[in-house]
Amino acid sequence: MLMIRISLLSIFCSFGIALADEPWYKSYSYGLEAMERGDWRTAVGYFDAALAHKNKDSGKVRAYGAVFIQYFPNRERGICYFNLGDMERARADLSLSLQQSSSLRAKEYLNKISGGVKPSSPPKVEKREAPPPIPSAPTRQVDNAEPPASTIVGERLNIAILPFDTKGIGGDLGEIDLLDKLTTAFYNMNRFKVIERAQLEQILNEQKLGMSGIVDVSTAAQIGKGMGVDAVVCGSIARAGNTASIDARLVDTETAAIITAQDAYANGINLPALSQMILEVAVKIKNELPLVTGYVIGVENDRITLDLGRMKGVRKGMKCLVYREGAPIVHPVTNEVIGKMINELCEVQFTEIFDGYSVGAITKPKGGPPLIRDRVVTK
Questions:
Q1: How confident is the model at residue 79 (pLDDT cuts 50, 70, 90)?
Q2: CATH 1.25.40.10: does it fit domain 22-134?
Q3: Residues of the chain with CATH 3.40.50.10070
Q4: CA dihedral angle for residue 175, residue 179, residue 181, residue 280, rounded to 10 degrees
Q5: Which end of the chain, N or C, is less surrounded by CB atoms within 10 Å?
Q6: Tell me: the pLDDT tens digits for 324-335?
């Protein structure tokens, strides 16, 4: 099937940036520069691009060669959201940053949010230590250039949010539906294609399962397979005194294997605390499934070797799309090349993960057999 890839410039036009082939460390550096200007929305776009390749905050991370930098994209994006007035996303990013690598800066902004502090107007960034300069990396040959970090090809991972088992949480919330909150949180990640609540209810009713909590992994996988989705999110929310915890699992519907499992906690049984807890676990799952691109480097029957490995955040059970670029798409008036024709070849599921590469199996043939040098993007 032929599809048209929209140019990266149009994808990121709301941020006024083009991130075509920038390494993650340059995107991070550009994000910091945008913060210094008080351009929060642009900075968020750059941090999104950096996180797509490397999704964990760290006080020391190798950019390339012997060059190491401080890397806190979750924290800095959370500060951007704070200044944009989006306190839920700010709290989620800052909390995640603290879990990955504790810093006084993240704690400071979390305390501001908890204390009801509002961002100053007009926007300003408080003075902070300048990050170490990032030297220019050696120029790559065009044939070996990395593919864009956020190439949009095919559909994103299709998931269903199944009803969670709730223990001890009920009347306190009145008419508030936690499943709606879960569905909204995952939808707002802009990472997944989420099945609609009404469609979910219809399918569950047809199978006479109702909307009670579904925590058994094999049952959840069977339900998801019947819906035609790639994966399902299931789990439980439990109360202990005046605190609550959520345990969520992303389960592959074909194999019933758990792709990732995450948890989060709330210090209070009220809507803001529980909503923040749900958002936090959704962010954690999203960050465990980065959108990264690469190449096919080996083909042997249905066994495909890819240059994506553990160092790029790939994990067993994730899926990717193999595609081939065709003729350029040229604007008839400006003669500008605005994209390329795309031929989707097949879907592949990662079965073996190594540091610098991985092996996968073709699960869904589409437009022809893959070849070495064909491109890949995680689903």
A1: very high
A2: yes
A3: 157-287
A4: 130
A5: N
A6: 988 888 989 988
